[in-house]
Amino acid sequence: MCGRFTLHTPPAVLAEYFDIDAIPEMAASYNIAPSQSVAAVRRPGEHRELVLLRWGLLPSWAKEAKTNYSMINARAETVAEKPAYRTAFRQRRCLIPADGFYEWKLTPDGKQPYYIRMQCEEVFALAGLWEHWERQDEVVESCSIIVTEANDTIRPVHDRMPVIIRPSDYDRWLDPECRDAAAMKELLQPWPAGEMTAYPVSKYVNRPANNDARCIEPVT
């Protein structure tokens, strides 16, 4: 699964990387947690836009605007069939910018957090889905991150990892007219292990309120 991640890449860099004209005001975050607002790139029309969505998908048919924490992730194996995700998977896909994410390894001394990022330390895009919910005057736009089996770098820590979309596939992934579920599922593969690194960090990150660079500092 993917339950925490970071985004501290400067907005100007994000705008250039994702080819977006305007970026909403947002602070660097080293400890993004479920139910918080996360940056997401989508293409509702001819051009891409970056918006803030609540992390934890709220289906359009839900009766109440409650976030179910179990819906922060959608499994790649079943995302095209599950009622909560299948329509969004066909029509409302998004990219969720990140520069790293956390997983916890079970050890004799408890759960040890690890920070996982690209070896090049550059920003990347997690595969996401977004949904629009509206009742009377209340509107909620939310998202979920798609996860798949872990690669060899992450497997010693956790058996799942978020799907990362290649830049060459951004246009296809974001195109709302591409509704071939089988073709989209082909993109939901583990990222090459050799391009990633994972290292232990302090349990300081366990508390969502702790949100600064100390979260990603390596520990021995």
| Structural domain tally | 1
Taking all Cα atoms into account, the compactness measure Rg is 17 Å
- What is the architecture at the second tier of CATH? Alpha-Beta Complex
- Residue-averaged pLDDT, rounded? 94
CATH superfamily: SOS response associated peptidase-like
The amount of helix comes to 10-25%
Task: Looking at this protein, list some descriptive labels.
220 residues; mainly beta; 4 helices; five-stranded antiparallel beta sheet; hypothetical protein yedk fold; single chain; 12 strands; globular; seven-stranded mixed beta sheet
Question: Would you give an account of this structure?
Answer:
The chain has 220 residues and is mainly beta. It has one domain: hypothetical protein yedk fold (Alpha-Beta Complex), CATH 3.90.1680.10. Helices cover 10% and strands 35% of the residues. It contains four helices and twelve strands, in the order E-H-E-E-E-E-H-E-E-E-E-E-E-H-H-E. The protein has helices spanning 11-17, 86-91, 170-174, 181-185; strands at residues 5-7, 29-32, 37-42, 49-55, 73-75, 93-98, 100-107, 110-118, 124-135, 138-149, 160-162, 196-200. Strands 3, 4, 5, 6, 9, 10 and 11 form a seven-stranded mixed β-sheet that branches. The longest helix is centred in the N-terminal third of the chain and has 7 residues, at 11-17. It is globular, with a radius of gyration of 17 Å. 35% of the residues are buried.
